[in-house]
Structure formats: C-alpha cells, structure tokens
Amino acid sequence: MTEILWHGRGGQGAFTAARLLGEAYALKDGSYALAFPSFGPERRGAPIRAFTKLDSKPIGNRSEVKKADFSIFLDDTLFSDSAFDELKPGGKVLLNTKKKTDDPRVITIDGDSIAGNYLGMPITNTILLGALAAVSGLVTVDEIAQSISLSMPQRIREKNINAVAAAYEEALQ
Fold first, then answer.
1. Which of 10, 32, 62, 173 is least surrounded by CB atoms within 10 angstroms?
2. Longest dimension (CA), the chain
3. Element holding 122 (H helix, E strand)
4. Cα 14 off chain centre by
5. What residue ranges define each of the domains in the chain, with the CATH number in brackets?
6. Does pTM top 0.90 for this prediction?
7. pLDDT by residue (tens digit) across 76-90?
8. Alpha helical stretches, state H, 2-83
9. Which residues contact 125 (CB under 8 A, 6 or more apart)?
C-alpha cells in the first residue's frame, strides 16, 4: 500500500488534494483508494492533515497514516525536521517553498508562484498534486485532469488542470 500524508492549513485544500489523488488513482482498473481528513473544530488557517491510501486491493484499514511514502507540505511553515519521523524508509517529503535544500529526501517546488500564475491565488493543493505525479509516477496528469473534471466546479477546472501540468513539468526539472 502506498500512503500519502498531506499537511496544510484550513482553507488550503489539503483534503481536496487527497481526494483528487484517490479519485485519479482509482480510475485505473484494479486500483483502490481511500482519502480522508483529520481536523477538529479548527477554523481557516489552522493546521490540518489529510491522508490518501492507494492499493491494488480493497483498503480496509481506515486509520491515520503514521509512516508515509510521501509527506506533502502545502505550507512550508508547517515543515520541521520531525517530518522525517513520519516517513517510511525511502520516503520523500514534497515541500512548497522558494528555498532549496541539499537533502535528497526533500523535493522542493515553488507552488505559490505557480498558483499565482495559473490560479491567481496562493492555493497550492493541485500544484503539489501535479508535482507528486511527476516524482512518484502514481498517477498521470491526464488522470488528475479527469478527477478535476469530475469533482471541481466548471469555472475553476481549466485553471487547475493547467496548474497541475505546469507543476508536473517544473517537478521533472
């Protein structure tokens, strides 16, 4: 089972990204996904976590992800060295930041700039989803686009699909 842990703040769309990833993955025959959030009575801006589990068989384990293959941070202020404690061996951190790092476990992308260019606002959930597709191979840009087309309001679909494609290309470099 591949497990992804999403870190964000209320209103940034971490759960939406977790759900879109699950929907995109489940488009393939014989693929199963489970996505769910973890938050309490917090409000916009409070730290939240969301989870995506992907497998080739039905997923019965609905517990939170403790050790992830990928830990994704929509907001770099939530990242600290403790993030490495939640990774499986060989796991990777995908971090939205303008900063660069030499740590091979951390993949950085300037999601805020891409979001600004394509969405006109600093919502980076689909940006990080596109970057994840590039570095993981779990889903394709086309599968994400299908998921967006099925789930998002029409007025924001094309912008998000273009943002995913741009992030995918940026993460490949």
1. 173
2. 41
3. none
4. 7
5. 2-172 (3.40.920.10)
6. yes
7. 999 999 999 999 999
8. 14-26
9. 8, 12, 13, 14, 16, 17, 20, 74
